[in-house]
Amino acid sequence: MPIPLKAHQMAQQFRQQQSDTKKAKQVYLNTLAVYAVSQYLKWLGIEIELEASDSWNAIAHTLADVADLQIAHKGKLECRPVLPHQTICYVPREVWKERIGFIAVQLDADLQEAILLGFASTVTTEELSFDQLRSLDDLVDYLGTIEPAKPAAIAQLGQWLQGAVEAGWSTIDQLLREPLLSFRSSVESATPTLRAKSIGLNGAQIVLVIGVLAIAEAEVDVWVRICSEDSTAQLPSELELAILDAAGASVMQAQARSTEMIQLKFSAVWGEQFSIKIALNDASVTEAFVV
User: Fold this and answer.
1) Number of structural domains, the chain?
2) At what angle do helices 21-44 and 5-15 cross, to 10 degrees?
3) What is the pLDDT along the chain (291 residues), one digit of tens a residue?
4) pTM higher than 0.85, yes or no?
5) 204 and 93, same structural domain?
């Protein structure tokens, strides 16, 4: 299938936001591959959510090698580019467990044409050989077997402000051995409501701390902090934290880089939904919230 100018313009826009040449090239190729698959699925009548995909989010490009396409009510398909001289399809380890399938997209030397080589339902190696791919004729039937993604339990921050401790969450002193450093607020002398949750991720035991404080009639400050159960211990350097909007797009991110704590702070209005994604290598966990 031909790759239109629109796809190249978007790929160029994403590439220009990367300072590393190798990373910029990968982002460009990933964008073309995702666009090609999106057009193919539209032709098949499959509902997609392109702008909800991490591959369509410049911040997510910095965090990982992403080439995903969100399929409505199903999950993410990984769309990996393959150049003419390549005999395998490279699939980064970080996406093995977070995709409902993987499509190999061969691009020609001039990046003007794309051929969808086939798909795999699962991947357990970074090198996916072409003979492991299933025919695209089976793709629609395969997607039909995927159960609709179950909505995550949503924590109600408004109830926290009224003193509630929801299932799965604890007060700070129940989880942390050392006291937390204070949370800075724009409201003088105000103290946020704090809740914590212990999370196991790739062998690391960490604590997610959420602080919420009403600062106006319809607005709150929200703090998101990650530390070890022993709050003086360093976090794994590869640990990543991202704030996702209601559509699942990453809007803020941070990486531990051998620090004892990482924290993000933002403001939200009543009724606003967001999620927090914590990732360590090929494992991740996502928590959903509504103000």
Assistant:
1) 2
2) 150
3) 999 999 999 999 999 988 889 999 999 999 999 999 999 999 999 988 888 788 887 777 877 788 999 898 888 999 999 999 999 999 998 888 779 999 999 999 999 999 999 999 999 899 999 999 999 999 999 998 987 766 567 899 988 998 888 888 888 777 665 555 556 555 556 788 899 988 887 778 888 999 999 888 889 999 999 988 776 788 988 899 999 988 788 899 999 887 888 999 999 998 899 999 998 876 778 889 998
4) no
5) no
Sorted by sequence, the CB contacts under 8 Å of residue 64 that are 6+ apart come out as 54, 92, 94, 95, 279
- Amino acid identity of residue 219, one-letter, is E
Domain boundaries, position 202: 154-290
> Do 189 and 131 fall into the same domain?
no
Same domain membership, residue 198 and residue 112: no
Q: Are 63 and 69 in contact (CB under 8 A)?
A: no
Looking at 101, 125, 145, the residue that finishes a domain is 145
Same domain, 13 and 138: yes
* Amino acid making up residue 130: F
Same-domain check for residues 64 and 136: yes
Based on its alpha-carbon atoms, the radius of gyration of the chain, rounded to whole angstroms, reads: 21
